[in-house]
């Protein structure tokens, strides 16, 4: 439909069915005042239902003529299209010469479209839009952008696949009942309110959020950020007249979110001012405004406030902290779990910038920094350029233990380098391929990895006789692990405690306790006396053949 400059053009479409067409309704007016009324329309399988374009008016001042165009779509069925109803207004077209446009969508069913309802108001103050008694069902998404005057009256938004309704930089007035049910999205299951937007409630307003789900945040409502705009004052004035309305204007039931804010995510000062007490029992959260240490083994993440306990580490060992982030709720005395980024500084230098969720482990490998002793690690959470919170925690950096020294990378490594020998400062293990003995000169002194003895003499020698020929992993307080045959001490040179050399061998055997030795001696003493008595009683001598026969039998038994 094309039309040039006109005083007034009136078009009515009634009882029209459009199915599987490449084009919907195209509306192109140039420098015209117009009235378009569509009723009882049924469309399906189109790329788009409605396209309108209007050019700027010039010198259209007629005495006694109201410069207003209208579009009305009512009692229509818009199903299974690529786009349902889309309006795109350009500010210049309806900003000059006091020319206004009024758009009304009433008693329509907009179902199963990619975009169900999409309105871009172009930030025009001359456009007034109303959506009344309409259902938006099963659409992938619906959005309102740059609309400075739009009314929602008795609207149902259900089963949307990419957020029930996205509101960007708009002023939306709610009248009567507006329901968001069983919608899903990433941020905001029911509604995502982005940018400088305001939702103003009339005295009759009732907003319901039921069984919506966000895979990330804000099952019912998601506020992108703190709303600060020229329109905040409109919302404040509107609500001062009816502050008690906030207590009954909202219904939240069965909403869920994957990370935070089952009902509401995001902090809004206007929202909080009028509704904090009414919404205090909801599941709400926001960007991180606090954090604390936490217990990862607990079923519930609760803050563990820092108690000045200092971790002690060697260069190369990690500092470990379990940290949880908390956002604001409408209950001013509580916080709720959220996610975000945390930055770690050591002595003013950033060493980690990490995303964390729930009670997360933050681990940083320390290095030698100028000096041993006390250092500070600082955990910082920054949500925007104007707000951040931090916590400084001291830790002690110890000198490397015996057998280790700081290498060029600033971490503890083997103090005496040798081929096929590795050292792990995290476990304090030393590994080599065998036939080697590594240890301190005084093995009788208990090894203490928290003490440093720079004068300790480290032995690192081949050991061919008594050391294990297989790969060995040991620690300095268990150097005997390198030895075989129950040997130990320096260079495996003697038996370990509780063992002694076996007769005719270099192996060490286990020593029995004193009571067992006394028992054996007593037994053999008694048996010796009984043997002599038996020989005398039986008259067994070397001259007697019986005795010689017994000896022969005993010798043969040994052989076989």
UniProtKB/TrEMBL annotation:
Keyword tags: Membrane, Transmembrane, Transmembrane helix
Q: Which residues cross the membrane?
A: 515-538
Q: What is this protein called?
A: Uncharacterized protein
Per the UniProt record, the lineage of the source organism begins with:
Eukaryota, Metazoa, Porifera, Demospongiae, Heteroscleromorpha
